[in-house]
Design brief:
heterodimer, A: 109 residues, mainly beta, five-stranded antiparallel beta sheet, 10 strands, 59% strand, B: 118 residues, 11 strands, 53% strand, globular
């Protein structure tokens, strides 16, 4: 049983579309991270949140602790948003990040 | 700050050889993490240090793997002897968080070292 499930696994979009990536987890968490991994391999931390909603430019992350669910939204998507997006809850008991398998996003012009 | 710096970026080595991966964390960060990423298993935590002390190495796959952090600005991950199944991307990350469940801060990742063992 996976402790972190992301959906969809793969996502293709046209430039300008609104994107939503979902993450469900089964463990108790102290926070949840959204990471972005570019085709070159580098990993960038986009958000860390423990409640509510955070916004950074065209990116919005929300979390519902009671439902153990988080979403990452991208407004007005752009080809440069093409990357793998990884959800990583911070397990409260172990204080370790648990990684989802990632969502591969491709945005076409 | 230049961020977390890993070297080398790419390493190709023959089976049986010793491999050493290096990491320089962001200055002032208390915690350092080594992760391995493969297609099959995704990202896995290998070991993490807090204030240069190894706190949890339960993710280290075998005795062939060892990690050290001799000071606050440098860490190594060594594989001896290397095997083809060790081929992966190895990431180092650092975080200002201390060993406390009450503090949640972001982790900053290096660019990774792509290791290929042939």
């Amino acid at each position: 049983k996976n402790e972190v499930e992301q959906s969809p696994q793969n996502l293709t979009a046209q430039e300008g579309e609104f994107i939503t990536i979902n993450c469900s987890y089964s463990v108790g968490i102290s926070a949840l991270h959204w990471l972005q991994q570019h085709p070159g391999g580098g990993i960038v931390s986009l958000f860390m949140l423990s409640s509510g909603k955070k916004k950074h430019g065209r990116l919005i992350a929300t979390i519902n602790i009671q439902e153990k669910h988080s979403s990452l939204h991208i407004t007005a998507s752009h080809p440069r948003d093409s990357a793998v997006y990884i959800c990583a809850p911070d397990d409260y008991n172990t204080d370790k990040l648990i990684f989802g398998t990632g969502t591969r996003l491709q945005v076409f012009p | 700050d230049a961020g977390v710096i890993q070297s080398p970026r790419h390493e190709v080595t023959e089976m049986g050889q010793e491999v050493t991966l290096r990491c320089k964390p962001i200055s002032g960060h208390n915690s350092l993490f080594w992760y391995r990423q493969t297609m099959m298993r995704g990202l896995e935590l290998l070991i993490y240090f807090n204030n240069n002390v190894p706190i949890d190495d339960s993710g280290m796959p075998e005795d062939r793997f060892s990690a050290k952090m001799p000071n606050a600005s440098f860490s190594t991950l060594k594989i001896q002897p290397s095997e083809p199944r060790d081929s992966a991307v190895y990431f180092c990350a650092s975080s200002p968080r201390t060993f406390s469940l009450a503090l949640n801060t972001e982790a900053f990742f290096g660019q990774g070292t792509r290791l290929t063992v042939v």
